[in-house]
Amino acid sequence: MVPFDYDLEANPANIEWDGLFLSNGPGDPAMCPQTVKSIQYALALDPPRPIFGICLGNQLLSLAAGAKTYKLKYGNRGMNQPCIDLRTGRCYITPQNHGFAVDSDSLPAHWKPLFMNANDLTNEGIVHTEKPFFSVQFHPEASGGPLDTAFLFDKFVGHVKKISQPLVLQDGLAYKKKTYKKVLLVGSGGLSIGQAGEFDYSGSQCIKALKEEGIEVILINPNIATVQTSSEKNDATPAADKVYFLPIRPHVVMDIIAKEKPDGIIVSMGGQTALNVGVELWNSGQLQKAGVEVLGTQIPAIEATEDREIFSQKLQEIGESIALSYSANSVEEAVEVANKIGFPVLVRAAFALGGLGSGFADNESELKDLAAKAFASSNQILIDQDLRGWKELEYEVVRDSSDNCITVCNVSLF
Questions:
Q1: Which residue of 144, 271, 288, 414 is surrounded by the most CB atoms within 10 Å?
Q2: Residue 383 CB partners (closer than 8 Å, separation 6+)
């Protein structure tokens, strides 16, 4: 530990160091020219030695690199400031207390922004693209606050321990977001159980999101009475670039793919029919052969959530207790597993949203009737333990590819 005005260049023999840590501090970074001078000396060393800065250290490192800083109107202060990792797109919750910021546009060559504030889009960190120099504006040490970004200290210490080896911090910084020019969206189709208005809504929002990214949208949806098939363009529900009013069937989807040659396909916004078609085309290898990538929810995840037997296995893998449940592929097998669970039981059709083909059976006779109806809509049915009378707490959680999670709502059912 040395004072802020310690001259590293004038005292090279006084201390031995393998890494330089620039701590936080109050005030205007422009008032620390002595510190900036020492950092510039450290930046020029060959071979390079790791440098890590936080808060004021981020601003000082930026000034030493040749960038500019400016005073914020109000500053960012508080325990719950969202910051986006520009390498991965993941959003972290951070504690902050600063009144100045780095001008990202002023960063010189070989430097780039590392984090960005999700609220006001100000700079929250910088990184050198070739050498082990990086800093963040927030507080990863987070005394009394969230520890989401404490891994940055491990990154720095790891670099210090490897100073005898080639040093690169930018693992993942060369992150290139794959671009898509054209995407086929499998729409909601006819309005029915498992394929109702909510899928029309999600599909129209999907079109909006894709259009915002500059992606051409090809839609297949035979239902002309939906929002997503509207030809009227407006900010709320932008229209798809091309709409095919055709049945959502595997061979029809492949015909459209052969004609339009999309980069990707989205099947998770269209309800049960879209999911079934996506699973069939993937398992048959037709999508892979055509070079079409499944975007959004992946096929294995769809199968794991729709096939209750696989779903039960997944829950067991993570040690979650679940109600007794077995799948059956015939009426006889349904009777067998129902007797194993004990009546009454819940009968449901697998691969069906919205409770299609479901009901409670108090005995074998009722079970056979329900099973016959369920098999009319699915080749697999599920026999579950009767949980009527239990209290149910349901959480709706949305997670993106960067592992950002949002609990949209929770519901209590009694």
A1: 271
A2: 325, 326, 327, 328, 334, 337, 338, 341, 345, 346, 347, 367
